[in-house]
Amino acid sequence: MHENTNTAETDVSTSTDTVGATGAEVVRFDTKVVVVLRDNLLPWQELNVTAFLMSGIATSQSGLVGESYRDADGNDYLPMLRQPVLVMTAGVEALAKARTKALGRGIPMAVYTEELFSTGHDAANREAVAAVAAEDLNLVGIALRGPKNVVDRVVKGARMHG
Q: DSSP letter at 60?
């Protein structure tokens, strides 16, 4: 089994412009988070895959998740990812090509395969992925986070989800 020894050290820091058009602070991120879904999924599958893939991104590095939320009445809510997430779609071949490019560039990525729709727990999910060679994975989605220009090249050919 091939093990990817490339690593992409990505900075969780941001650069900021002090004032945007609305008078509010504008935050610009050095990295980009993208989910690419296969373009023939059912709506429930799109949501399910996106949720699972984003759990991989959110837990992949400390500092990606912001502070907890609190409303004016003092109710606390869980923290969320600090930066926006783009959701895109692509055909089977473009999705496989994006996976290969991400691996080649050392971009950490989460994968979701067709087989995971029929598994019932985390261990079974890992077993289903482990049973298939990388080039033969029946991908329905990937999620990645890395430097903007690298991620843009990796997902070239995908289009915004609409």
A: S
